[in-house]
Amino acid sequence: MFCPNPSFGVGEHVWPSWFISEFHGQGPFTTSRAGAPYTKRDNVTPHTSDALLGVHVPACEGCNTVLDTTIEKPAKPVVRRLLALRDSPNKLILSADECAALARWLLKVGLLSAHPAAEHDHPGLQRDQDLPQLSTVRAEWLDWMRTGSAPPTEFSVFVTRRDLRGEDAEPPKKQHIVLPRLVVDREDRNFMSRSFGSTGVNVTIVWHPGWPIDHAQVDAGRAARLWPDAREVDFGALPQVHPKELSFWDASIGTLSVSAEQLDVLVQHPLSVDSNPAAMFFGNHEATHS
Ligand SMILES: [Zn+2]
After folding, report:
1. What is the mean pLDDT of residues 216-235?
2. Is-above-0.85 flag for pTM?
């Protein structure tokens, strides 16, 4: 997937085997969608497995090695410390370099697990026609993984802590940051967000070239931004927050079609929970008729 060479074996493990073995002995695992477990062929018995089931994408041996050296190895000790923290309030200082290593790994997992070429070991997931996938994959989303360079700074990576069992009550107030479908001088910028998580951690990756984000939870010390401009953070000092407290909405209605000059004016107001999508689309209306 990263180069013209043929895939080797099952390719690249999106959730690496060292991560899956962190959950050894905690099964059996079931996989659910909207609370309904995927079932066996009888459509009744939940499909269970003793180990967490993986997902992989085609990759040659050379690319696999590069990803292992430049993404997996630097992130492994950091991810293990996050998982070991559980719900403890103890300090967990991540240096700027550790935040950047964690962000690289989370971008890899978030992008590859939603790639149209991803293959799921779980038969229910693999069969599911409606599994969320990236509708577009830009070359620069993947190129940095193969070359071992830094991810584009047009990505943002946010993390929060969450209830270990995911059984916390829904928040009384839910906030949203709307990502417009932004077309600048007829070029779609492919704004995109994706959220996922693991035990005690929730992650959101966002592609938003040219339009800054003001993240209310980061400002309030309820979330950390790992990328870009990684800086030291005490992950242990973050409170547990429900993933629905602040979520990104990828606009599915309308298109904000502007010129580069019009965008210069718009981006003076960062995307935030206070952004007014109606005003953005009004901007579209004006742009169309001016
Ligand atoms: Zn390759």
Report:
1. 95
2. yes
